[in-house]
Specification:
InterPro entries: Pyridox_Oxase_N, Split_barrel_FMN-bd
Structural class: alpha+beta
CATH architecture: Roll
Number of strands: 8
Pfam families: PNPOx_N (PF01243)
Number of helices: 5
Protein name: Putative pyridoxine 5'-phosphate oxidase superfamily flavin-nucleotide-binding protein
Helix content: 10-25%
Strand content: 25-35%
Length: about 190
């Protein structure tokens, strides 16, 4: 049976650290599309404290999570074990977007490896509900490694390329909500 937790204790932190994949879910306040995004790269999720987590947000073909967070802040992160112990952990909370150049960017980006190319933001989540469930329906799967595609793509980009990409693909959600602001300089 599922259990509620008042904080991220050592056991939950260890479970989170062992998962190579997590899912992020957000939705607009009214109508529109619910978004669920898989996130990989083991070192891109951090437990900041007992009730705060953060993840490194990489450039992608959309910006639904950012648009939804700007509109209403609601976010759920889900981890599920594909190994021996059947467990699903959901972290519910309110998220905020921290982009390069923001006053707290240096402190937050330091939570993640510096060799990950092309981060566009850090998503910081203040947790208001921490719950697990059995995960009996989750299949066994073996992690064989991270895909290098996103990392390789980002290594080929210049700051101007990232600015152009954000301008083209990340300024609004599929429902027309504002996401990332337009870059103001080529170095953005």
């Amino acid at each position: 049976m599922g259990k509620l937790y008042d904080r991220l204790d050592d056991r939950l932190r260890a479970f989170i650290a062992a998962q190579p994949l997590f899912f992020v879910a957000t939705a607009p306040s009214e109508g529109g599309h619910v978004n669920v995004s898989p996130k990989g790269y083991r070192d891109t999720f951090a437990v900041v404290d007992d009730r705060t987590v953060a993840y490194l947000d990489m450039h992608g073909s959309g910006a639904e999570t950012i648009a939804h967070l700007r509109e209403n802040g609601r976010i759920t992160v889900m981890f599920c074990s594909f190994e021996r112990t059947p467990k699903i952990l959901r972290l519910y909370g309110t998220g905020r977007i921290v982009t390069p150049g923001a006053p707290d960017w240096p402190e937050l980006s330091a939570l993640f490896p510096s060799d990950i190319p092309g981060p566009r933001s850090v998503i910081v989540i203040a947790l208001d509900r921490i719950a697990d469930s059995c995960g009996y329906g989750v299949p066994y799967m073996e992690f064989t490694g991270d895909r290098d595609h996103l990392r390789d793509w980002a290594l080929r980009k210049t700051p101007a390329d990232f600015a152009d990409y954000r301008r083209e693909k990340n300024t609004t959600s599929i429902d027309g909500l504002p996401a990332l602001p337009l870059p103001t300089t080529e170095a953005s």
